TrEMBL record:
Organism: Acidiphilium iwatense
Taxonomic superkingdom: Bacteria
Domain HTH arsR-type, first and last residues per copy: 1-94
Membrane-spanning residues: none
Classification via PANTHER family: TRANSCRIPTIONAL REGULATOR-RELATED, TRANSCRIPTIONAL REGULATORY PROTEIN
Entry-linked Pfam families: HTH_20
Signal peptide: 1-20
Key words, A-Z: Signal
Keyword Nucleus in record: no
Name of this chain's protein: ArsR family transcriptional regulator
Length: 232
């Protein structure tokens, strides 16, 4: 008797056209809500919910909760590799995406997520802080601040050592609702937005959650974090 993983069960999950399309919509590593995946798969919300539950049970997907919302992503790189291998021997198809409203497009560049920075800029800042080694992803959706990070934040006027952590820690990974990747939240994220507004890198909109990037901010984001804010 030869022992072999039950690839038939996994193949059956992927074989359904709607489920395959939903998985393909997640191939870029982002996490998407059920409604967007239902749209991509061309199925109703109820049908999508059933598909998602089966793929969760089958180990193809992972689910992340952010507030009242649930976001789904591929369970890991092995799933992505399997999909890419199958895609290499199949015909090219188009994934349906929901059109973005004008107001949402305006907010995608930079906005407040409760009390911290979000949108393309928020994600770019979090990614740059990680690339430079100032913050490091940790368990329980937290970021750890490195000694280099303490020094950098101190340079822009934030004394990390005096900040009081919440039960979620000092710095938290918050899943961005438009970019589907994490930005920086928690007391450090709150203080960073406050400080960047106080030093005129950013300016809060008076009539919405939008955050405006000032000319000074354009210069400082490039010099301090290597971010071309004009391209966002």
């Amino acid at each position: 008797m030869v022992l072999w993983p039950n690839i038939a069960a996994i193949a059956a999950l992927i074989a359904d056209p709607a489920r395959a399309t939903m998985l393909a919509a997640l191939i870029d590593g982002k996490a998407l809500p059920a409604g967007e995946l239902a749209y991509a798969g061309g199925v109703t919300a109820q049908t999508a919910s059933s598909h998602l539950a089966r793929m969760l049970d089958g180990g193809l997907l992972a689910c992340e909760t952010e507030g009242r919302h649930r976001y789904y992503r591929l369970a890991g790189p092995l799933v992505a590799e399997a999909l890419e291998s199958l895609a290499a021997i199949s015909a090219i198809d188009t994934i349906r995406r929901k059109p973005i409203s004008r107001e949402m497009e305006r907010l995608r560049t930079a906005r407040r997520c409760y009390d911290h920075l979000a949108g393309r800029l928020g994600v770019a800042v979090a990614q740059s802080l990680q690339t430079k080694g100032f913050i490091v992803p940790a368990q329980a959706k937290k970021f750890e601040i490195t000694p280099g990070g303490v020094s950098w934040f101190g340079g822009i006027g934030i004394d990390v050592l005096t900040l009081k952590p919440t039960r979620h820690g000092l710095a938290r990974q918050c899943l961005d609702c438009t970019e589907r990747t994490h930005h920086l939240a928690g007391p450090l994220g709150v203080q960073m937005l406050t400080r960047l507004c106080a030093t005129n890198w950013l300016r809060r909109s008076t009539d919405s959650r939008a955050i405006l990037i000032t000319p000074k901010g354009m210069t400082m984001f490039r010099s301090e974090l290597g971010i071309d804010a004009s391209a966002l």
